[in-house]
Amino acid sequence: MRAPSVVLCTLNLLSHVTDASIFSSKKTCKVKSGGTNATDDAPAILSAFKECGKHGNIIFEDEKYYVNSVMNVQGLDDVDIDIKGTLLWSTDIQYWLNHSLPVGYQNQSSAFVLGGNNVRIQGHGTGTFDGNGDYWYEWIRKQPNTSNYPGRPHALTLGNLTNSAVHGLNFLRSQMWTMSIIYSHNVVLDGIFINNTGNRVSSSNTDGADTIRSSHIKFNNWTVYNGDDSISLKANSTDISITNSRFYNGLGIAMGSIGQYNDQFETIERLTVKNIYYSNTLHAVYFKTWTDDQNGYPPNGGGGGLGFASSLTFSNLTTSGLRGGAVTISQCTRFSGAPGVGNCTNSQFQIKDVTVRGLSGTTKDNRVVSLQCSAVKPCTNIGVFDVDLKFANGTEAGAYLCGNAPGTRGFECTGSPCVGGSATGGC
């Protein structure tokens, strides 16, 4: 039997010569795996962060690390985290349900929370977080509440992370959402690969990433295979960019859900999306806001929120086999416990100043645009230009459906949208 996992700490002596000789040092911690799932590697990982989390290097070697308990890492400063191997989370569902860490939004929780300033994570294209999600996907199907089940953890939460970068990480079969980003600012997320495809049953609620109360977040070169939002912007997400990315089988890029907290004012502002390829996604771009009728509490209830989404631009979007309306707005989100009928046009959250320019490819749905907007706060200044969206037989998709959306730009409305409860941008 191998010895328990340990941390090997060394002192790297670095010299740099300018006009005067300057001598500096940087501590390095190499995390060694215990080598079996009977040994929890989380304590050794936490020890490495404690020892080398400030002005140091932390190295995960090309081996498998078994993570059997939660990890909450805060206060990192000027640290390089090198991940070459795989971190594999345990399948003890009851442990995670009872111990996962609060995210601070919608009563969501996480298996791993990481925060600090000037943190540089490099995965080299091989570093992998494996959530063992097949067990979760099978388990959640047997529960009465299959959406946002209390304690079902996100794979990784970047919480209070600033001036940092994550490159070249892979995420496989995340337990729930892959990455939640909250209270984080000035973060680059580049070259991220996510595959939450279930091996035995289809995955659910496996968002690629969600931003919450965060700003200046750059998503570049993402590849996401999943069963829910490819990337989602939620409350107070500002100055976000999503570029040069590929999304498969999920719901597309989402704004929301938002307006879930009664009387709270929230915004989504200044989003730039460019050069995106979608394959078999439900939408390219969709918005989902709660009605003004509060029913229950988050994560699976709520409503009555205030605010707006504004200054959102999307360009060069290419689709293959789109399953639903390409650009849709639904302001009628209401989850468990809500009445079967309700007011779908009373949302106090407004959507305005949205431009989509360059939308081409194939679709299975005739709806290019479907705007089911609030009568209380109508959608304004919605523009869609340069559309070349066709069915597989070459017939052009031609439905532009509008409700409570005055002053559209680039297209003429051809009819009215469906009106009904939705969590996925349509009825």
TrEMBL record:
GO annotation, cellular component aspect: extracellular region
UniProt KW keywords: Cell wall biogenesis/degradation, Glycoprotein, Glycosidase, Hydrolase, Secreted, Signal
Keyword Cell membrane included in the entry's annotation: no
Membrane-crossing residue ranges in chain numbering: none
Pfam families: Glyco_hydro_28
Predominant cellular place of this UniProt entry's protein: secreted
Entry keyword annotation includes Glycosyltransferase: no
Entry's Gene Ontology molecular function annotations: polygalacturonase activity
Signal peptide interval: 1-20
Localization annotation: Secreted
InterPro entries: Glyco_hydro_28 (IPR000743), Pectin_lyas_fold (IPR012334), Pectin_lyase_fold/virulence (IPR011050)
UniProt GO BP: carbohydrate metabolic process; cell wall organization
UniProt similarity note: Belongs to the glycosyl hydrolase 28 family.
Stated name of the protein: Glycoside hydrolase family 28 protein
Organism, as annotated: Amniculicola lignicola CBS 123094
